[in-house]
Amino acid sequence: MRWSSLFLPFVVLIASNVYCYPVSETDGSTEQGQTDHTISPSSNSSSVDPRSFTKPNIYFKRSGTRVCGVALRDADRQDCINRPGIQQFTFAGAATGTVVARQMAIAPGNNPPNTVQCEHVLELQVAQHVLLNSGFCDVLDAFRVANAQAGSAAQVMNGIVNAINAQNNLFFLQTDVNKSLSASSTPTNSLAFADVHQFIHSPGVQAASIAVANAADVAINAVIARANAVQNAPAALTAALAAFNGHVANGLTVAATWNRVLAGVVVA
Questions:
Q1: Which of 9, 33, 78, 152 has an alpha carbon 20 to 30 Å from 87's alpha carbon atom?
Q2: Is the pLDDT of residue 58 over 90?
Q3: How many domains does the chain have?
């Protein structure tokens, strides 16, 4: 069982053009206030720890999935419960380990059982990957140096964090399927990729994830617009903006990256 023809954040290359699904969110032990970029674009994907839940019914608020020293996560299980009309997705029987998905049940998620976890459909790592590899953090750093009124990194990135933690990006998903979004499950040993594929292509889920991806790009572009508006921009900011714009021109956006996920197929 493998997921083919994807280019994704934190992918593990198994064979030519065959990759694993993006890792699910890490627990993150980094303390709040740390200002490094956490994971550099050159980081080895295999060293990234997968999410580990000590209690499967809890979705902790934590400082993981950091970019430019800012935690991208700003949602917990209660946020999911509070989402009007939230749905939960469960699956019948054991994972098949084939290209055939299990029967999926969709029900209201306002009173979720312990067998489901609150999940970002558009993974936080997708936004993390784009921000790190596009040079966004370099733009952010140079912008804040050039504009003393810009505010903290967290303040500048607030719109991005809000976009990817929006209620329409949150669903309850059965634990074993959710864990198949983890780096611990490569394309050669995951039994539930067919279920993952079925889940993210559910009409409401897919539409929501695309909307969130587009909203994240809008929020990123709003920060870039602020940086572009700096009068007499220093060379460092000009260079960082040029590099960022070059990556975007080559298709490094949240929406484009997520669309490659959606275009993937599960093969035996």
A1: 9
A2: no
A3: 1
